[in-house]
User: Fold this.
Amino acid sequence: MLNLIFAEFYKLKRSKGIKLCFGFTVICSISMAIISHNVAIGKLNLSISGSASGLSEVVIMSLIGSIMTGILVCNDFETKTIHDEIIGGNGRKSIVYSKAIVFSICIALLLLPYIVVTFIGCSSDLEFSKLAGSSGFMNIIVENKSLDFSAFNVGRILLISITLIIVYIGRISLCIPIAFKSRKPMIVMSVGFGLSTLVDIFIGLLGDISGVSKIILLTPYSREYLLISMETEFTMILKAMVVNIIFTIIMIYITYKIFRKSEIK
Assistant:
């Protein structure tokens, strides 16, 4: 399986699509911070924050994450590389596991620009304003004025960053079985982004109902997991990690079941 993982990274290194995805997150993360700062100092009107919120990782990762998953999984089916992997003695389980590992690392890399921007923002004396439909990383940047950039707070930001990586891996992991089933990047992007948007709308409408909110907390789609901040209790951070890891494992298991029974043409 280790050889499969190295092979995946070699293919991704040569993929223009993945490079474009990463470049897009770099541009969006920097733009989000610049707009937030200019709103805070009065150079931009607060009314722009609604549009600027589309630059946050909440929106961008739903779109770019599903595109990346489609590229990672579907390209092997389109180029027939998947045949060589199976004929070469790699079991279907190993293929699914290697894809899942590389998928998780790719999500972390796509979030890296937001993490770097967060650390730069927190270590500066700049003011930032919360944008409409804010996010976990945006929450931390906005709090930078009240933070002492000590070793403890740096460690807490790292912990929150790791937690948010796990949360987004969980949210986007739904695209893995879709990709193995459909084998079409456009379907993965459309269904992945569409479902994420619909679920967020559904949660926004029904999330305040006590019974529903408890069920939502058992999924990666809880807003509380996305909006983790420096004030969030450790128990909630731990719960976010556990729920999303379990959800990701379930998605990988479902993917293996789908792929094991599917015919490779």
Notes: The chain has a mean pLDDT of 85.
